[in-house]
Amino acid sequence: MFKENTIRLGIAPIAWTNDDLPELGGENTFEQCVSEMALAGFTGSEVGNKYPRDTEVLKKALSLRGLQIASAWFSAFLTTKPLEETVEAFIEHRDFLHAMGAKVIVVSEQGKSVQGQAVPVYKAKPVFTEEEWKLLVAGLHRLGELAAEKDMTIVFHHHMGTGVQTTAEIDKLMELTDPNLVSLLFDTGHLVFSGEDPIPVLKKHLPRIKHVHLKDIRPEVVARVKEEDLSFLQAVKAGAFTVPGDGSIEFDEVFTTLAASDYTGWFVVEAEQDPALANPLEYAMKARRYIGEKTGL
């Protein structure tokens, strides 16, 4: 299905230890996490809060297991804080990822985000003003320029509980930003959780998609999140997300569309769950089998 050497498969450490909810998987070590990633058949990882920040130490630990760093999350506050605060933090983040050999930098706008707050994720979702959109676009252009200095690309992560969550908001961001400076991260789970159809988003913005998160949902849990006004973190703990092949999303058209395109880069399985309820190795292996069956990768 996919041309040879175009797709690399990674998995996020958030299934082992949750960055937003450290009590989830607090007992799981970095060494266990990366060892089980390799054992499950993945060759890449994003960066979690237990990963060593000394690049030589991290490189050695990963090379022993045949792993590479695909990217890492960066929280921008372009709509709520002075630009230079985000720029300073971004340069440090960029340089770390560059040293690790990554080519893309995952950027999410956390200004006004409710994803970490104890409020209903649907009802409390922020909506940007036109002035905030201008700040976001100008800031992303600046980050894109800084990434380009290292021959890297920023990929914007649409996300539940933020000002860029819906299809309309993704469309607006793509319309307002320079395609040479701002690319898109495509995340199946966040789109379906938001009530969107991921396929039109994928097809419309395919030329700008430079990173893919493969995430599934449990629709019965998502329905409860809406009915009971749960927060995003409550939704995670309740099991709203799961790995591809374990939920309700049909990935066939996602894979065939990407295979027919010029997409090259990472597919990263990212499914934050409570590891006490969803054994990370078991679910990593389940995801790897599913992707192999559907794509031949």
Automatic annotation (TrEMBL):
Task: Report the residue ranges that make up the Xylose isomerase-like TIM barrel domain in this protein.
Answer: 38-288
Give the catalytic activity: scyllo-inosose = 3D-3,5/4-trihydroxycyclohexane-1,2-dione + H2O
| Keyword annotations | Cobalt, Lyase, Manganese
Under which pathway is this protein filed? Polyol metabolism; myo-inositol degradation into acetyl-CoA; acetyl-CoA from myo-inositol: step 2/7
EC numbers listed for it are: 4.2.1.44
The domain of life for this entry's organism is: Bacteria
Uppermost EC category = lyase
* Molecular function per GO: myo-inosose-2 dehydratase activity
**Which cofactors must be present for this protein to function?**
Co(2+); Mn(2+); glutathione
Q: Please give the InterPro entries that the UniProt record associates with this protein.
A: IolE (IPR023952), IolE/MocC (IPR030823), IolE/XylAMocC-like (IPR050312), Xyl_isomerase-like_sf (IPR036237), Xyl_isomerase-like_TIM-brl (IPR013022)
Give the HAMAP family listed for this entry: IolE (MF_01672)
Q: What is this protein called?
A: Inosose dehydratase
Organism from which the protein derives: Ectobacillus funiculus
| Name of the gene this protein is made from | iolE
